[in-house]
Amino acid sequence: MDIEKISNLIKTKRKDRKLTQEELANKLGVTEKAISRWGTGRGTPDISLLIPLSKELKIEVSELLSGEENKNITKNIEAIIEYEEKSKKIRNKKPFVISIIIYLLVIFLFLYYLKYTYSDVSWGERYLFHLLVTIVFSSMIIFANWNLYTNYFDKEIDKNKLKKVTYAVLLVLYIMMILNMTIFDRHMSKFVWQGWDNYYKYGGLNIIPFRTILKYIIEIKQYWPRFFIINIFGNISIFMPVQYFMIKVFGNLSFKKYLLINIIMISLIEILQFVTSCGSLDIDDLILNVFGMSILYYLYIKRESNEEVK
User: 30 - beta bridge partners?
Assistant: First the structure.
């Protein structure tokens, strides 16, 4: 099997059929980069794509495997096996290796981050540090996965699966950042119920809706700008990325289902803060968090609807 002949035949027949790389990619459900690799001999079509590709190029599979048009070659299993073996050998492993190295680096840095994050730093510095680390880790994961589905995988279905994995990883990283800020980074010694001694600690317990919100609004001069921004706008916006990542991972579930998931998740965090004396249990935090996530859900669904109309 001659890889150069196969690539030349693919490129020639594609041009004869007056198909651009993008058009052929869309017909086969692969990336445009994949078509480019096939036409330059830097890669070969997956064995599952031989028949669809042959149909689009108006040639026989046997012709595609031989790299020569109208050559009378018997379609046999040996030719397919040889094609598969040589395809694996010429496949560029560099993008795969690069992504694996990045994944290992993220794991190493994350373990170091967990060790460092419990050092004694001020609350403001700690928040910015958590946020910066999350952005850096997220960027590394996004790049590693982009590198794979751009330079390693051919099929669009593989690309979409990898995108979903990317958002799942980002969802986990972001939730861990929130847990670090709200619970684990507050010098928690053990998970024990400390009774009503925790009532006044970190704001204590509030089960009266809008009590805290109204307090910050009525006494805005006292709390503006730092406490007002953190406790109002901060609580509205902090869980918005969580909602976005969940939509990307779980799909467009109904608003009621996401609302239930959000209420349960945030309630558990609020309860965990209170029983471990790491924070308050404030229903207003729940209201603001869910409100922010609902805004994000609405904006995302509205954008999707507008794109469908176009």
Answer: 155
Give the integer Cα–Cα distance in Å for 77 and 233.
Answer: 64
Higher-confidence position of 233 and 196: 233
∠ CA 99-246-129, rounded to 5°: 65
- Do 40 and 26 meet the contact criterion of CB atoms below 8 Å apart? no
C-alpha 170/C-alpha 37 separation (Å) is 30
| Contact (CB, 8 A) for 183 and 279 | yes
Give the tokens for residue 132: 């910066």
For residue 281, the SS3 value is: strand
Token pair recorded at residue 223 = 């709390």
Taking the CA of residue 122 as centre, how many other CA atoms within 13 Å lie in the half-sphere pointing to its CB? 3
Q: How many residues does the chain have?
A: 310
* Reported confidence tier of residue 71, pLDDT bands at 50, 70, 90: low
Structural contact between residues 169 and 46, judged by C-beta atoms closer than 8 angstroms: no
206-218: average pLDDT: 84
